[in-house]
Amino acid sequence: MSKLLTITELAKITGLGVTTIRRRVSAGTLPYTRANANSGKLLFNEELVQTVLRNEAYSHLKGCDMSDMIDTKEPKEPTSYLANLFKEPSDITDAEAARDERFGYTPRNIIKSASFTK
After folding, report:
1. Is residue 66 part of a domain?
2. Taking every annotated instance into account, which residue ranges of this chain make up the domain Helix-turn-helix (predicted)?
3. Are residues 21 and 56 in the same domain?
4. Do residues 56 and 20 touch, judged by C-beta distance below 8 A?
5. Domain for residue 76, yes or no?
6. Distances in Å between the alpha carbon of 22 and those of 7, 16, 77?
7. Based on the domain organization, do 90 and 46 belong to the same domain?
8. Which of 7, 5, 46 is nearest to 26 (CA)?
């Protein structure tokens, strides 16, 4: 037979407040017994209460599609500025285009700067 707990012991074990436990007893959602019939202390079977609380927690998940909560997508490309600096280009023109973009060069700027060197 499992141990019977008082309301304060049950509150410590479950993390529920004493007032919450009293409300749930009056609502009929927690199994309990009384010492000395109707006027005695409230006593709780620890295993039964833990089972009730566990079933309540899992009942919210029954209609839930867990695949939405699990991320199965492939990781995205690195998006930080520093990660983009070290990203390998697929060919040399991509590398030049990325360099020009980083430094703000456009074809017009490149032509103008080349005309000043003559």
Report:
1. no
2. 4-54
3. yes
4. no
5. no
6. 8, 10, 54
7. no
8. 7
- Count of domains for the chain: 2
Range of the domain at 47: 4-61
Supply the pTM of this predicted model.
Answer: 0.49
Domain with residue 18: its CATH number is: 1.10.10
pLDDT by residue for the chain (118 residues), tens only, comes to: 578 899 999 999 999 999 999 999 999 889 988 887 777 889 999 899 988 888 887 777 766 665 555 555 666 665 676 766 666 666 667 767 777 777 776 665 555 555 555 4
Owner of token pair 């833990």: 50
For residue 99, give both structure tokens. 């360099």
Give the distance from CA 107 to its chain's centroid: 48
Helices H, strands E: what count in the chain?
6, 3
In this structure, the answer to whether residues 57 and 85 fall within a common structural domain is no
CA nearest neighbour of 8 among 19, 81, 90, 30 = 19
